[in-house]
Design a protein that fits this description.
- It contains two helices and 24 strands.
- By secondary structure, it is mainly beta.
- It has one domain: TolB, C-terminal domain (Neuraminidase).
- The strands form six sheets. A four-stranded antiparallel sheet has the order 1-24-23-22, with no helix packed on it.
- It binds calcium ion.
- Calcium ion (CA) binds next to loops.
Length: 384
């Protein structure tokens, strides 16, 4: 298993490095120019409200024309325009199963979006007795989704309305990584390979399974599985410089984690955890076990991490290369500095807002965008 896993990550990392320079060269020149401006401008971050009145917004995606798409957990997909706020409701969004934590989660533009209009959605689907995390592909045409095609459903179904995962990222080869949750009542399943509870899965953009997934040749294993032993991961991002894939996940009471993913590896849940059960009882006596990967960092007590960005923009040169983690319970964003794949420092930002932060994204304009988690949710842009 380890050999296959090692080879896969080498290929992916190499692909990321090969793809990176074109972007990095442009961004680098731009960054250098703007860095001088920003450094001379300097000053504290300035927070602007870009849109308000969003009902439990979950995810932002940036359109090539400068607008944004924002999902709402209840099933809304809204077009937001800087300076104007919400300007349109996108029609044709598939019906979602909206209950408790279930609903519409991520929207992600395909790397070919500008030509094809293709995007991906993740959402809860089904009924109280049998629901799943679903991934679908669609095309955006004149503020409506067309050609909606289901690519993936978690399996088997579950009868809880919580712990869906639901974050997605597109790897340099065009395949999709998707986080799934443990469904809360099914946590032991996160250690088994015959189901998709508590995993990341990797699929192609047409829903088929890549030949180089780590368990495609394992009898009885779901071939979509990329990593396992997760609880409820809601942050997933590719490092724009190194190609490393970072994931964070909610722990139980304490034990939230930041992990760096490598295909085929076991991230421990629920055998290893730094958290306690909500009752205060121990879930496991182990914080580490052979064959189970340790987190880069764990947060105890819980901050409830719920979105993540890698920053490579020009507005904040001092933030380049850092991770940003949105936190619901801590009502903050954590800025995380990394060196050689290790966390070297953390800074707690934007606590003054007093808001649960559901998502954080690095905008193409170099600003950092936040979503506040409430019935009157807002899109905030952090610039200077
Ligand atoms: Ca873990």
């Amino acid at each position: 298993m380890a050999r296959v896993a090692d080879r896969s990550v080498a290929v992916l990392t190499l692909a990321a490095l090969v793809c990176a320079p074109a972007f990095a060269a442009d961004a680098g020149a731009e960054a250098a120019a703007s860095a001088n401006e920003a450094a001379s401008a300097g000053g504290a971050p300035v927070i602007e409200t870009v849109a308000e009145g969003l009902r439990f917004p979950w995810c932002i995606a940036f359109l090539p024309d400068g607008d944004m798409l924002v999902t709402e957990r209840g099933g809304g997909l809204r077009r937001v325009r800087p300076g104007s706020g919400v300007v349109a409701d996108i029609a044709g969004v598939p019906a979602v199963y909206e209950r408790s934590q279930g609903g519409l989660f991520d929207v992600m533009l395909d790397r070919d979006f500008e030509r094809s209009g293709t995007l991906f959605l993740s959402y809860a689907h089904g009924t109280p007795d049998a629901n799943v995390l679903r991934v679908a592909r669609a095309r955006l045409v004149d503020d409506a989704l067309t050609d909606v095609t289901v690519l993936f459903d978690t399996a088997p179904t579950k009868d809880t309305p919580v712990h869906y995962g639901g974050r997605m990222v597109q790897l340099p080869d065009g395949s999709l990584l998707v986080t799934t949750g443990d469904g809360f009542d099914y946590r032991e399943q996160a250690q088994r390979l015959d189901n998709t509870f508590g995993k990341t899965v990797r699929i192609r953009d047409d829903g088929t399974v890549p030949d180089d997934n780590p368990f495609v040749d394992r009898d009885g294993a779901r071939p979509e599985i990329w990593t396992y032993g997760h609880r409820n991961p809601q942050g997933l991002v590719v490092d724009g410089r190194t190609g490393l894939v970072y994931l964070h996940e909610h722990g139980p009471r304490g034990g939230d984690e930041l992990n760096v993913l490598e295909p085929g590896l076991n991230y421990g849940w629920p055998v290893t955890t730094f958290g306690l059960d909500y009752s205060g009882a121990k879930i496991s006596p182990f914080t580490e076990r052979p064959g189970m990967r340790q987190p880069l960092v764990h947060w105890t007590p819980s901050i409830a991490p719920a979105g993540m960005a890698w920053y490579g923009g020009a507005v904040f040169p001092e933030w380049q290369g850092d991770l940003f983690v949105a936190a619901l319970v801590e009502k903050s964003v954590r800025r995380i500095e990394l060196r050689d794949g290790r966390v070297t420092s953390q800074e707690v930002l934007f606590e003054d807002l007093g808001e649960r932060i559901r998502d954080v994204r690095a905008g193409p304009d170099g600003r950092l965008y936040l979503l506040t988690d409430s019935e009157q949710g807002r899109v905030l842009a952090v610039g200077r």
